[in-house]
Every structure is written in structure tokens, then in C-alpha cells.
Amino acid sequence: MTIGQEVYRGRLEVAKGFAEWQRPWDSYRFELEEMLDHGDHVVVCGMQVARGRGSGVEVRLPTYHVVTLRDGEITRHRSLHDRVDALEAAGLSE
Fold first, then answer.
1. Among 17, 35, 38, 90, which lies 20 to 30 A Cα-Cα from 84?
2. CATH fold of 2-89
3. 25: number of CA atoms within 13 Å, CB side?
4. What is the DSSP string of 53-94?
């Protein structure tokens, strides 16, 4: 899984990565907008909404996740900021 530029492997590292990602925010949520199923890949489209811990400024960032599954287990997760890139990573196109 990649959060920012780091790569995390295994459940404990992924949990650590998410904790690091959320540390600078007073509040954080992901607003799901769309899910696209394509065989072993799922594209999750949505908006990250966060409020800065020190500044109180709200940030909204469109984000696309490509999740790869094998035998019911997540084997890879990538976060992208471009819908076209996410669709291509899952073998789809607009």
C-alpha cells in the first residue's frame, strides 16, 4: 500500500501508515462517491475532507483508490489523485 510516497507491507505497517496520515488533522473523513468493480480490481472514488490540527482550515482533495484482491484478500492498494490514472491502473478507461 502506498500513502504519500511510502510503501507499507502487512496489516501493522498499513495501520501505522494510516495513523501517520491522519496525525496532522483534527478531523478526517472519506466521502465515497463511486465504486467500480473490474475483476480483481476495485476503483474507489471519493473526496478526502480534513480539518488542519493547528490552522483549522478545511481541505478537500479528490482521491481515487485502486484495490487489488486475490482470494478475498487485499493484496495491493494504491491512492491516486487522478481518475484517469486510477482507471488505467485497474485496466479500465473512461
1. 17
2. Nuclear Transport Factor 2; Chain: A, (3.10.450)
3. 16
4. TTT--EEEEEEEEEEEEETTEEEEEEEES-HHHHHHHTT---
